[in-house]
């Protein structure tokens, strides 16, 4: 099935941020696994001990704090990229600068739009594996904009405000329901009030060399996601040949279910080649 047709059919009109659809897969791809998100202890020694975390649109890297803490407790060296979210090129460059500083191979992790960033930046020679967390996983020539274009009319629309000076924000009053429904209300309110403007230019940035074609990939599907529909996540992860886990949670699953996210990252570190 054509991946773009699959994505646009299931989108049901979601536009802009995370507004991507895909066909519902009856089961994860061969060689993948699913679980309820229970964390597993890291082994005494893993093939890769460096982890680089990349945030998506509308937020900064602080949402990774609980995942960071979990991984540090298990002996990993963790770095968090602060993307300018002005353009894909700028965000890839910021990620590569962090990768340059790693003292060995690293697992590169991206949430949401961060998946686009790691798809391009993941070609860095220090990247040993990729982990997508409720994230876009584009193929060559694809961008967020191309993946979400031409939705059917009359379908629900995420609460994205009209762009100002080339940047986007979510409606604060609707942020929790669409992005962070399973976060503590006070935390969700803070995220809404501290949004990072997301550059329209970043949505238009097209991937030139998808790293998932030559790096082992893992994907966490957030089954209650209202920004990137779960069927789309399944379609993209299948196309990438990723090892898949499905966890109940919102688009902010990296913050609401840090144990599940940490467990998948640690699995990737043990599986790196």
UniProtKB/TrEMBL annotation:
List the keywords (alphabetical): Signal
Checking Pfam families in the record gives: Abhydrolase_6 (PF12697)
AB hydrolase-1 domain residues: 51-263
Q: Which residues form the signal peptide?
A: 1-26
Q: What is the lineage of its organism?
A: Bacteria, Pseudomonadati, Myxococcota, Polyangia, Polyangiales
Q: Does the keyword Signal apply?
A: yes
Instruction: Cite the InterPro entries for this sequence.
Output: AB_hydrolase_1 (IPR000073), AB_hydrolase_fold (IPR029058), Sec-Metab_Biosynth_Hydrolase (IPR052897)
Organism whose genome encodes this protein: Labilithrix luteola
Q: What is this protein called?
A: Putative signal peptide protein
């Amino acid at each position: 099935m054509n991946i773009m047709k699959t994505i646009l059919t299931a989108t049901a009109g979601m536009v802009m941020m995370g507004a991507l659809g895909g066909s519902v897969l009856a089961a994860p791809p061969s060689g993948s696994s699913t679980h309820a998100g229970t964390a597993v202890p890291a082994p005494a020694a893993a093939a890769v001990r460096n982890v680089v975390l990349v945030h998506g649109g509308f937020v900064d890297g602080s949402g990774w704090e609980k995942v960071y803490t979990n991984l540090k407790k298990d002996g990993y060296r963790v770095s968090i990229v602060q993307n300018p979210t002005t353009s894909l090129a700028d965000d890839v460059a910021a990620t590569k600068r962090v990768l340059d500083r790693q003292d060995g191979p690293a697992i590169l992790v991206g949430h949401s739009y961060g998946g686009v960033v790691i798809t391009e930046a993941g070609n860095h020679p220090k990247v040993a594996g990729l982990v997508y967390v409720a994230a876009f996983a584009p193929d060559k020539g694809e961008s967020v904009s191309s993946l979400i274009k031409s939705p059917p009319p009359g379908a629900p629309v995420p609460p994205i405000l009209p762009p100002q000076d080339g940047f986007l924000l979510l409606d604060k009053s609707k942020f929790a329901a669409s992005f962070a429904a399973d976060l503590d209300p006070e935390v969700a309110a803070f995220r809404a009030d501290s949004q990072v403007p997301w550059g329209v230019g970043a949505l238009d940035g097209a991937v030139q060399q998808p790293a998932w074609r030559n790096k082992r990939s893992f994907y966490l599907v957030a089954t209650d996601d209202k920004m990137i529909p779960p069927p789309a996540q399944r379609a993209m992860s299948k196309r990438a040949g990723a090892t898949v886990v499905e966890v109940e949670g919102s688009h902010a699953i990296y913050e609401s279910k840090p144990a599940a996210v940490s467990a998948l990252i640690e699995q990737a570190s043990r599986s790196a080649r």
